[in-house]
Amino acid sequence: MTSVFKHLLVYLGPYRVQVIMLIGGLIVDLAFTALLPMSMQALIDRAIEPRDVEMLWLLLIILGVATVIAGIVAVGRDFLYARLGTAVLNDLRFAMFEHLQRLSADFYARTRVGDIMSRFSSDLAAVQNAVVMAVPDTILGLLGIVFYASLLFYLNWQLALMTLLGLPLLLIGPRILGPRAEAYSYTVRDEEAKVASMVQENVNAQPVVRAFSLAKAQIAGFRRQLDVVYRTGFRFNIFAYLVERSPNVSFLLIQLMVTAVGAYKAFHGTMTIGTLVSFNALTFSLSSAVTSLTRVMPAVLQASGGIERIAELLREPPLVADDAKPVPAPPLHEAIRLEDVSFSYTGERKNLDGISLTIRRGDNVALVGGSGSGKSTVLSLIARFYDAGDGRVTFDGVDVRKFSQKSLRDQMGVVFQESFLFNTTIRDNIRMGAPEADDAAIEAAARAAEIHELIMRLPDGYDTIVGERGGNLSGGQRQRVAIARALVRDPSILILDEATSALDPATEAAINQTIERIGEERTVVSVTHRLASATGCDQIFVFDHGKLVEFGDHTSLVSKDRGYYRRLWEKQEGLQVSEDGVRADVTVKHLKRIPILAKIGDQALAELCGLFVSERLEESRVVFREGDTAVDKFYIVARGKVAVTKSDPVLGERQLTVLQDGDHFGEIALIKDMPRTATIRTLTPCIFLTLQRAQFLDLVEKHRHLRKQIDTVANDRIKRSTVVPPLKQN
After folding, report:
1. Is-contact 568 531, C-beta < 8 A?
2. What's 2-192+234-315's CATH class?
3. Where are the domains of the chain?
């Protein structure tokens, strides 16, 4: 209880006047509840036994007036309860929401959304119960014990002393059981947060759940989590009720003993009947005061977990924070530089290792490389979503940490791979980029993003509601609204993080043309894994496993015989995807770079090219699972990204790598009938070129001399697939 009230006093601090008025109302309430039992002594000893009618009427009138006053004060006190409870809860909601805006990207990367939401729902509900019920009842109970004990001593000090000496016995149960109840309270809140996370994940994953008939498995997993909530909740409730019950039982024993002694004294004439009746009535009032304290204990204990979780959130420090005296960032004049920068998300391995590069003002720059190579991390450091671990990021030679974050980002327009739109109008979504923008500026940004005409064809034009996450618009339309949102702030620096990777080729080409046009007088920094989008850039920086391995323009990089960029280019060069994103083709040149096919002659490979079939899968679909035996296809990723995961007896399912345009998987299935050694899941909409085992074996039969060579390559591949590579972080 001490811990809970320590936090509550902080929350109640801004409302000192209301709290003082509330305490005043409680004192009036206490005075009235004490007046009733005390009046019994006066009524019996001074009015009823002496037959004094005038005294009887005087006392009854005083009681009547006191009742009216107490009733009016009680209504005012209820008004204060309602106002105070609502105000404190709103203050907490605002404090948490405001703090969430200050927290850095790392917090959101490691925290479940459902866990955050539960702090705004169930945790705050527990705090509300404590504020509305526990605070007044606790104050009433503590003041009542002091007040009633004083009156008991006034009536009979011997019986009062007996009563007070027994009161410490009331603390034994709560002292022993309270800490365990408090610990279970936090556990219950944490497990309930996991339930909220599971519900949210299930709602977001409904297409996958339906497509793969996962409802039964999802229900089973949810039931297991509910069983955990039940067990922890049951333990908490048992201990909470025992904490409440033990003082009441102890007090009943004390009250019985005191009543027996008082009756004995009245029987022998050492105490008046009125005093005995008043003493017993005050003892019941004291019992009510004690009950007020014990009655709120379950609510206080339940609130303790919620309050701790809320305080835990409010204590979370932002890793990226402004200096004590930040300076506004001036417009970029020369260059952005990374100077010997190293960075790690987890501290376990470096995501960037000693990176030094220069992005000149006005240049169009691309960052390319495999998944997890560190290219998106560079963008995050430039936009100061994270700060460099070692080294520094500078604007015109000044460390970005000296600038205020707002002034730095005001120069930037950012377009992400997933163009999140708010569930409001197109106009309001574009205005998010510059809240002060008028309708003319919004329309100008939409024209620059080449979406104005489409908006005007909609029934409500700019006032069209885009729906949840922009669901009423197509992917290309969402991306153009996002570009308009970035342009409405007239940024001098345009940052694009895989801005077109999830779009079909025709839409991607159209948006790339728009980006090329709007970037002519801006510094453009883009991350892409599709190298065709980078051919016109002034500078290309090539990353591999956190290191900058090459840089230059497309022509110079592709001319290097053994260059890493050239290998990436050749891997993607032999794949063509139709403009509508439905069909893909592969060339002989591309197939010759796949080890299991490298020994096959050009004529046979030309035949093989015609056997590949195009297949399309949406995001978050499982291509096949580890252990599947019914899959007999070889896959080439013509477009998109897939995650490769493998089960681990200790860590569970762990991601090994991410494959993208030009990569391939499943080659063992071409000649070996064996279970799949990993699970493949799409991360974006994907187009695959697939080859059936039966068709491949038919081709091999026509060229028997290839069989031994292919078997050798396949056996080597099988051996390597049984070794689990180190975990990669994307």
Report:
1. yes
2. mainly alpha
3. 2-192+234-315, 332-407+531-571, 576-721
pLDDT score of 394: 94
Residue type, 688: F
Superfamily name with CATH number, domain 576-721 = Jelly Rolls (2.60.120.10)
Of residues 698 and 417, more confidence is placed in 698
Q: Are the CB atoms for 39 and 88 separated by under 8 Å?
A: no
Lowest average pLDDT, out of 363-377, 575-589, 698-712, goes to 698-712
Token pair in block for residue 487? 């342009």
Length of the chain measured in residues? 730
Establish whether domains 2-192+234-315 and 576-721 are of one fold.
no
Please write the tens of the pLDDT for every residue from 193-213.
777 767 766 766 665 555 545
The DSSP code for 666 is -
Cβ(75)–Cβ(25) under 8 Å? Answer: no
8 Å CB contact between 242 and 173: yes
Phi, psi of 68 (to 5 degrees): -65, -45
pLDDT tens track for 625-684: 888 877 788 999 988 889 998 887 766 678 888 898 889 988 777 777 778 888 899 988
Could you read off the pLDDT of 234-270 as tens digits, one per residue? 877 777 767 666 666 666 676 677 777 767 776 767 6
CB atoms under 10 Å from CB of 555, counted, come to 8
The C-alpha atoms of residue 207 and residue 210 are separated, in whole angstroms, by: 5
Q: Which fold has domain 332-407+531-571?
A: Rossmann fold (3.40.50)
Burial category of 689 from C-beta neighbours within 10 Å (exposed 0-12, middle 13-18, buried 19 and up): buried
- Close Cβ partners of 709 (under 8 Å, ≥ 6 residues apart): 599
301 contacts 179 by C-beta, under 8 angstroms: no
Confidence tier at 175 by pLDDT (50, 70, 90)? low
Q: Are strands 352-360 and 335-343 parallel, antiparallel or unpaired?
A: antiparallel
Cβ 412 vs Cβ 491: under 8 Å = yes
Collect all residues with Cβ–Cβ distance below 8 Å to 163 and sequence separation of at least 6. Answer: 149, 152, 254, 255, 258, 283, 286
Q: What pLDDT is stored for residue 172 in this prediction?
A: 66
**Cα-to-chain-centroid distance, residue 467:** 21
Q: Of all helices (H) and strands (E), which one includes residue 340?
A: strand 335-343
Q: What is the pLDDT of residue 539?
A: 93
- Tell me how far apart the alpha carbons of residues 626 and 677 are, in angstroms, rounded to a whole number: 5
Strand segments, DSSP code E, in 350-410 are: 352-360, 364-369, 390-395, 398-399
Distance CA 431, CA 445 (A): 10
Cα separation, 10 vs 314, in Å, equals 13
CA distances 459 to 357, 454, 464, 465, Å, are 48, 11, 7, 11
- The DSSP element (H or E) to which 575 belongs, if any, is strand 575-577
Asked if residues 400 and 337 have their Cβ atoms less than 8 Å apart, the reply is no
Do residues 676 and 631 lie in contact, with contact meaning Cβ atoms separated by under 8 Å? Answer: yes
Rg (CA), the chain: 37
Q: How far is CA 67 from CA 143, 329, 532, 560, in A?
A: 20, 67, 86, 96
Question: Would you give the distance in Å from CA 559 to the centre of its chain?
Answer: 46
Q: What b-and-e string marks burial along 196-209, b requiring 16 or more CB atoms within 10 Å of the CB?
A: bbbeeebeeeeebb
Q: Rounded to the nearest 5°, which phi and psi values hold at 121? A: -115, -85
* DSSP type of residue 362: T
Residue 438 tokens, joined: 């008028």
Coil, strand or helix: which one is 673?
coil
CA distance 374 to 539: 17
The one-letter code for the residue type at 43 is L
pLDDT at 80: 77
pLDDT digits (tens, 9 = 90+) for 554-569: 999 999 888 899 988 8
Beta bridge partners of 680: 624, 644
Give residue 728's pLDDT: 40
The number of CA neighbours under 13 Å toward the Cβ of 60 is: 9
3-state secondary structure of 395: strand
